[in-house]
Amino acid sequence: MPFGYVGNFPDQQVKNTGIFSPEDVLNLNAVGEYGGSYQLIETKSISGVSSAIFTSIQEAQYNVHFLQIINAQPGTDGTDIRIRFYENVVEESCNDYYFVYLYNSYGSGSSAEVKNDSATYLRGTFNIGNATYEAGNSYCYFYDLGNANKYSFQTMHTSVMGNNNALLSAFGGGVLPQTSKVDQIKLYNGSGNFSCTAKLFGVKQI
User: Fold this and answer.
1) Contact at 8 Å (CB) between 178 and 50?
2) Which secondary-structure segment (H or E) carries 23?
3) Whole-number mean pLDDT of the chain?
């Protein structure tokens, strides 16, 4: 094995060609040594609350974070899950966020661009109804949260099953355009309480 010197693998016996075989990738992933691996930081089971905060995001270790929002259901009809950053344990709630999202509604056939250069949040989902079968799922990537010399960026993709089985899908991104270290991530509902499973991962760099 050309990469036997990583982890507890056998000593390298052949010349290092710099090429990973499928076996190398599987072995390195298994011990968290392969770049691009997803490392679970925390799972939150959120039920009937207005907000939840990831207080330990390991921002010094990861340049990229990955957030999953699974089976989101609001208590108030037609509300969304929103995201705010904390800088040095202080919530950034001013009109400092920029975002642009494009959504398509496959129920009505409509599409539109939603943008704001003075928002108080980034979007984690688009509006979700509170009927039994209505729910939303999404994922976000966050970039350079722990780098005090760079802006903090987001990309997001969400799919929502709405009223009368209307599917809405949206994608886009946002930014907190100020150089700061982000050390916590808050999820909260636009109005009222919400429930979901939220998973935060760190992405190892290659």
Assistant:
1) no
2) helix 22-30
3) 89
Tokens (6 digits) for 62: 């990861």
**Unique residue bearing structure tokens 């974070």:** 65
Which residues is 199 bridged to in the sheet? 43, 68
Kindly give, in sequence order, each residue whose CB lies less than 8 Å from that of residue 58, ignoring residues fewer than 6 positions away.
41, 202
Neighbours of 39 (CB within 10 A): 14
Domains and CATH numbers, the chain: 1-34 (no CATH), 37-203 (2.60.120)
Tens digit of pLDDT for each residue in 100-118?
A: 999 998 877 889 999 999 9
Give the mean pLDDT of 52-78: 96
Q: Any idea which residue has 């094995």 for tokens?
A: 1
CA angle (136 as vertex; 113, 199 as ends), nearest 5: 110
pTM over 0.90? The answer is no
